[in-house]
Amino acid sequence: MNLSTLVTPMIRQTLSADVYAQLRDLLISGRVMPGEKLSLRSIADALGVSVMPVREAVHRLVAEQALEMAANRYIRVPVLTVSQFREITSIRLNLEGQAAARAAELVDSQALAEIEKIHEAFCAEFAKGAPDESRLITLNKELHFAIYNQADMPILLQIVESLWLRIGPIINYDLRSGTERVVQRVQASHHAAMVDALKKGDSVAACESLQDDIKSAAEFILNTGALIVADAHKPVEAD
Fold first, then answer.
1. Which one of 18, 98, 176, 198 is at 20 to 30 Å from 44 when CA atoms are compared?
2. Domains (ranges, CATH) in the chain?
3. Torsion on CA atoms 100, 236, 136, 148, rounded to nearest 10
4. Structure pTM?
5. Distance (Å, whole) CA 118 – CA 142
6. Do residues 89 and 218 make contact, with C-beta atoms less than 8 angstroms apart?
7. Would you give the distance in Å from CA 181 to the centre of its chain?
């Protein structure tokens, strides 16, 4: 992977927070894959900084379990176990469903227009003969968080971001894989249902459509074998 195409070189003197923010966004957006190996030097070169601020940022992300530091000093994007994935997904169903429901009650016309714009861009990209996977992944994240931001629940949003930091690299596995789900535009149909619920101010439908989106992607990922098998497969359900 060429990191220089995914990040923006730094020019400020105090860099650790900026490096952390860019690496965090890469993980939340799912633009790096589980098991992918990086090095302090490759990250520093891509960002145009010294190794020191990169090391500080990476140590923060390791503490948050968003990255792993291998014995040979390489940094690795963690591969979740089935049990970890199922637990995080269960929490997401509840928290993100709550955020979507609340957003349907509070969203204003300006925010709704922005959400629709992101959804239309997502659908337009999907409609291409060869969709840009990176753009689909970015738009998927932007749509979800544009909705969650409307819930006006900053603590909940912070928790959701921490969950995406752990699960982001695997969330978009189907968007990268070119499977039948992509061909049939399953993700776009779930997003359309979410947007429609927001337009109607229907909190129940917003919650259900958001949860359907999460469950559909989760079941696909669980069936791919992309996770470390730690327990028997069970359906993902909201509490």
1. 176
2. 13-75 (1.10.10.10), 80-221 (1.20.120.530)
3. 20
4. 0.83
5. 7
6. yes
7. 18
pLDDT tens digits, one per residue of 69-102: 877 778 999 999 999 999 999 999 999 999 999 9
**What residue type is 124 in one-letter code?**
A
Strand order in the sheet with 68-69: 37-38, 75-76, 68-69
Q: Which two tokens stand for residue 7?
A: 């990040």
